[in-house]
Specification:
This protein is α+β, with helices and mostly antiparallel strands and 210 residues long. It contains 5 helices and 9 strands, in the order H-E-H-H-E-E-E-E-E-E-E-H-H-E. The strands form 2 sheets. A 7-stranded mixed sheet has the order 6-5-1-4-3-2-9. A two-stranded antiparallel ribbon has the order 7-8. Strand 5 and strand 6 form a beta hairpin. The mean pLDDT is 96.
């Protein structure tokens, strides 16, 4: 099973149900963000990680786009650079634009742009634009604002359901019942190839077809 825990966020689940009901008509476009903090370590060694923020933060929201639309990406255009950290061997900022087979457009902000003063590690958001309405998703909005003299700054303390726990629960249930896992290796592949196509787009300076 591919570890895509964002499918188990309460806001994401409710948005998927609304889309499936037809509440906003047909999806026209999706704008997403997955902006995290600088991870360091093996994440910034291209020999170990395979890439930087573009690879790290494309796959999760890209999976949500694939899941919500039921379609596959056919064209990718990307921008990436090292903007927030000095002397990086990988990029820490990126934008990836996609066209799907069903005509939906998507754009993702994939970055390690949440620096130390920011109150949390990052975000998972989507603006889902339909023919009859728009759904705004903030996957990590279930939080308290905590102001601590010990920490020395304000932080966001997440109180929502544990998406990782729900994901592992689904995995275990599939094994015990002898069923297919709910998020397959193919689901992971469909997202990973978009990120890799983004690097090809960077090299060629133009959109690339899948």
């Amino acid at each position: 099973m591919t570890a895509f825990p964002c499918r188990y966020l309460a806001a994401v689940i409710q948005a998927k149900e609304a889309v499936d009901r037809g509440d906003i008509g047909q999806i026209v476009a999706i704008k997403g963000t997955n902006r995290g903090s600088y991870p360091g370590g093996w994440f910034v060694d291209p020999k170990l990680s395979g890439g930087g923020a573009l690879l790290d933060h494309t796959v999760h929201v890209m999976d949500l786009i694939n899941w919500f639309t039921g379609s596959e990406v056919k064209e990718v255009y990307a921008y990436a650079a090292a903007l927030f950290q000095e002397n990086l061997a990988v990029e820490d900022a990126g934008m990836i634009h996609v066209k799907l087979a069903n005509g939906v457009f998507g754009v993702l902000d994939t970055s390690w742009s949440r620096r130390a003063p920011f109150p949390t590690w990052g975000d998972v958001t989507m603006e889902i634009v339909g023919t009859k309405g728009v759904i705004s998703v903030d996957g990590l909005a279930q939080k308290n604002e905590l102001y601590s003299s010990t920490i020395g700054k304000g932080v966001w303390d997440y109180w929502g359901d544990d998406m990782d726990a729900y994901m592992i629960q689904d995995f275990v249930h599939a094994l015990l019942r002898g069923e297919a896992v709910p998020i397959s290796g193919e689901d992971g592949w469909h997202s990973a190839i978009v990120a890799l196509a983004g690097y090809k787009s960077l090299q060629e300076g133009q959109p690339v077809l899948l």
